[in-house]
Amino acid sequence: MSVLDLFPDSARIEQGELEVGGLRASELAREFGTPLIVYCEQTLRARARAYRDAAPNALVVFGSKAFPNRAVLRLLAEEGVGADVSTLGELEVARRAGIGGEKIVVHGNNKSDEELRAAAEADVLYLVLDAPDEVERAAAAGIKRALVRVTPGIEVDTHEAIQTAHRGSKFGLTPEQTIEAVRLGTSLGIEMAGLHIHLGSQLLDLAAPRMLLDWLAGFVAVCRTELAWAPAVVDVGGGLGIRYTEDEPAPSIAEWIGDVEARLARDFAAHGLPRPGLILEPGRSLVGEAGFTLYTVGVVKEPAEGPPWVAVDGGYSDNPRPLFYGARYEALLANRATEPSDRSYTICGKHCEAGDVLVRRIALPHPQRGDLLAIPDTGAYTLSMASNYNVLTRPAALLVADGQARLIRRRETLEEILGLDAP
């Protein structure tokens, strides 16, 4: 495997330069500036089709927090993918992308009355109940159909900040509270269609979905005894990880979903339960590999100890994942992609923050001011988590295909940021 394999499906090296979607990195930088996040349409469609092929009878809804963008949601909708949203803003993005309520699932651990009313007005497929008091509030807002998010007390192998199903999680209800929520919701006239469960994010082995479905089938057996009720549908969340580095393994979408489907059928049959319908909420595994970030190299300098620093024109403000989660990335000098590396370098941003490091100890040809540096796998949880730290403008985003680039998010201007200050 090479670093190029971490870039979108259409990535090629042509005449020593990175090319994606039939466009050279230098062309994109020249026309749109840097930092720049570039999405490959071919990759987005391929990942969506992989989910549809692996689970043709499931409802697939994009975990839009990964990158809530109208153009991307519209493209995924063309491939049969709906939207999973958790705020009023994400719901509005999905609706403006043309996604109907019948393909929207709304969740969130602290929904406002306004968000509940908006979900009801949009006639979303399901609202995911996440708190004991939310059942009555949802009924009062006019919610017709609901799932209940249950917290199983399972800890998975991922960063603690993106574990969501352990006993101390802020998400969901305990099994006992879930049973009461189903009982209350039914009495209030809500169609209690099923259960929602999500273990965490960036999961890289099949142990996680196996634990989830083993536990879930056992819990549904308890629900049948306690309530004479079983879910018509189960939403098993998302969580499938992607490779960020050459040495990082990850199951394919087909492997992951194939295992989920098989376990769901087997475990429910073992308890004498009918197999419920399935909802999947992929986020990172739909868009993460489709995007990469293009930077311009500035200062290159040698410290008293350690590898040389290579500073780029972005950093923590456009990709906080290394600082938040200790995330690791690879990198490529996009305009000198075939030159041999001479040593290891550390890639940092331009922020007044010692932790503003994007990639540690990466082998590169000797970088020079003006070079273009590309970091792959930045399509998820980068621009959606970006900030204006140090009053930097957030970058633009493009969608590329067949030699054409389309601006899907314009670069902010300094005047727009400064205009937010009260006079």
SSE map:
Blueprint: E1 12-14, E2 17-20, E3 23-24, H1 25-32, E4 36-40, H2 41-54, E5 59-63, H3 70-78, E6 82-85, H4 88-96, E7 104-106, H5 113-121, E8 126-129, H6 134-141, E9 145-149, H7 175-187, E10 191-196, H8 207-227, E11 233-235, H9 253-270, E12 277-280, H10 284-287, E13 291-301, E14 309-312, H11 321-325, E15 332-333, E16 343-348, E17 357-364, E18 372-376, E19 396-401, E20 404-409, H12 414-418
Parallel strand pairs: 4-19, 5-6, 5-12, 6-7, 7-8, 8-9, 9-10, 10-11, 11-12, 14-16
Antiparallel strand pairs: 1-2, 2-3, 4-13, 13-14, 13-18, 15-18, 16-17, 19-20
Helix pairs in contact: 2-9, 7-8, 8-9
Which structural traits does this protein have?
Lyase, Ornithine Decarboxylase, Chain A, domain 1, TIM Barrel, 2 domains, nine-stranded mixed beta sheet, eight-stranded parallel β-barrel
For the record, the count of structural domains works out to: 2
**Main sheet summary:** 9 strands, mixed
For the record, the CATH class of the largest domain is: Alpha Beta
Global shape: elongated
User: Over the alpha carbons, how many angstroms does the gyration radius reach?
Assistant: 23 Å
In CATH, the architecture of the largest domain is Alpha-Beta Barrel
The helix content is: 25-40%
What percent strand? 15-25%
Amino- and carboxy-terminal Cα gap: 55 Å
At the fold tier of CATH, the topology name of the largest domain is: TIM Barrel
CATH superfamily of the largest domain: Alanine racemase
Number of helices: 12
Structural class, by secondary structure, is: alpha/beta
| Quantity of strands, as a count | 20
Q: Overall pLDDT, averaged?
A: 93
Stretches where pLDDT falls below 50 for ≥5 residues? 156-166
